[in-house]
Amino acid sequence: MLRLHLVLGTMLALLMTIPVAQAQQCRQLDSGTPDEWVSYLNHVTRDDQNTECIYFALRGLRGMRWEPAIGTLVKFLDFERPLNDWEKEGISHLEGSYPAVDALASLGPRALPAVLNVMESGSTSELSRHNAMVVWMLVYRDDLPKGVAMLAKEVEKASTDAAKQRLREAVNDAEKYCTPDDKAKCKAASEPRKETAQ
Questions:
Q1: Of 6, 18, 65, 127, which is most buried, counting CB atoms within 10 Å of its CB?
Q2: Chain centroid to CA 53: how far?
Q3: CA 172, CA 73: separation in Å to the nearest integer?
Q4: DSSP class of 64
């Protein structure tokens, strides 16, 4: 019984200290505004010293659901957050690894044009393009076949063959996010529709 109390006491102490540790991750932005977080992200150098503050700003923007941040958020689609205190102690945590994905998905359809541009672009990283597709499907999480269909429609609208190829790859990846019940619908939605002659 004593051992159980010690274990529970240790876990409770850990849980009580985690919010404090997280709150101290970035003192310079702790009392900042969304404008200041965006400005910081637009000028910061990505390195180990700034990782915690980058994560702090991205997490703050996710909570605010601030549309003017979209152009900045897409630049951080390939930014992987540091392990939090729970994870360092071996305790699993449900938070996603890419905070910009969560922040963009929280904005819903307003984020779709920006993530579409990322998927089309040849100047973005493969990881950024993949995570842009993830955002797209998260926005359509209540109707995954529709998400695939809407993305497939964008293939033919692309201005270059290279952009079309990248979007076609995104459509193929998007199908993998469909549930077993939706697989057939997603597969049908991914196929280009031929216009019939009138």
A1: 18
A2: 17
A3: 24
A4: H
Query: Who's near 81: CB < 8 A, 6+ residues apart?
Result: 51, 55, 58, 95, 97, 98, 99
Residue where the block lists tokens 């390195």: 47
Torsion region of 65: left, alpha or beta (phi above 0 gives left; psi -120 to 50 gives alpha): left
Show Cβ contacts of residue 60 under 8 Å, excluding neighbours closer than 6 positions.
29, 32, 34, 37
pTM of the model: 0.81
Task: Evaluate whether 126 touches 163 at the Cβ level (below 8 Å).
Answer: no
Angle between helices 144-157 and 161-175 (to 10 degrees): 170
Q: Cα(97)–Cα(132) distance, rounded to whole angstroms?
A: 14
Nearest of 68, 40, 66 to residue 54 by alpha carbon: 40
Which stretches of 74-178 are DSSP H helices? 85-88, 99-105, 112-120, 126-139, 144-157, 161-175
CA 103 to CA 106: how far, in whole Å?
5
97 secondary structure, DSSP code: S
